[in-house]
Amino acid sequence: MNKNLMTLVALLFVLLVFAAPLLAKDFGAPLSLKETTPISAILADPDAYVGKTLRIQGLVVEVCAKRGCWINIAGDKPFEKLHVKVDDGVIVFPLTARGKTATVEGVWEKIVRQNEFGFTRTKPDLDKAVDPASVSTTETFYQLRGLGAVIEGL
Amino acid sequence: MGLRRFSHALHRDLGYLCVGLTLVYALSGIAVNHAHHWNPNYQVARSEARIAPSDFRGELSAEQILELLRRIGEPPSYQNSFQPDPESLWIFVEGRVIEVHLPSGVVAYERAAPRFFWHAVNFLHLNHPKKAWTWIADLYAVGLILLALTGLLLLARGRMRRRCLLLTLAGILLPILPLLLYY
Lengths: 154, 183
Known about the structure:
Oligomer: heterodimer
Helix content of chain A: 10-25%
Structural class of chain A: alpha+beta
Distance between the termini of chain B: 44 Å
Strand order of the largest sheet of chain B: 1-5-4-3-2
Number of domains of chain B: 2
Largest sheet of chain B: 5 strands, antiparallel
Strand content of chain B: 15-25%
Largest interface: A-B, 29 and 37 residues
Order of helices and strands of chain A: HEHEEEEE
CATH architecture of chain A: Beta Barrel
CATH superfamily of chain A: Nucleic acid-binding proteins
Number of strands of chain B: 5
Number of strands of chain A: 6
Number of domains of chain A: 1
Distance between the termini of chain A: 40 Å
Order of helices and strands of chain B: HHEHEEEEHHH
Strand content of chain A: 25-35%
Shape of chain B: elongated
Radius of gyration of chain B: 28 Å
Radius of gyration of chain A: 21 Å
Largest sheet of chain A: 5 strands, mixed, barrel
């Protein structure tokens, strides 16, 4: 291969690698719903929305740092946030999405987990004996299974 | 042109064509294989400071947030803010998140910046662009299949043949053995 061709190939490689990220802003499937459901309405009665496809909008406040496989979106009322989980690798949210506004569509899920040893969200105090009766062996949480998203200002 | 000669030409040209993508996929493969050791996409820098505890509580106004930024020593502007609870405030400024715990005055800074080279190659490897990139990646995969097959057609004759066959056998066993052991 002559020198000019080698330079051209090298330039194309650099262009390919560094230009591609500039294209991304939409994630997953295109958004199709017209109506946005307020996050506060979903969180106020989460069971009413289970299995429904919803479109939500809000500020991205947290992003999965390692795999970009979930985001938390602030609600329209104070101190509220909603968890959006996407299939690993299918949608990957960038860490730079924090502080940006996202519109997400997905299916609202209720997840019930059981563990005979119980669930705890706080670090256990090893000096204190744990009363097994005080530890719940069932954990229920809700999340939006994200199918598509648009993040503004990325 | 005989089959062997054609395979040689195809193998050579595909090899050149696949140079860039092979480097992208191989380098990114190593990077994401070790995602449990490091964050292959972002460089996350964290630091902590402490200011005097604040008596602000509940839903804070924009003026109160600007006042807190002034106390921290930050410029008086921010993009967005969020309060996970009445005693905490997260302020989003360009490229950073500043978390303030109001009762203790603990301030945590976090800056996440994409790793210059790795973020780009992982972006391609994991097919985040979708769209036309999916087709390019598919074509590359077809190119690799052809490279493997034309390689087999180029097995050396004479004394080197035995060595080439052994290497080919090792190459075939390489994915099969872990499957037998771990799958």
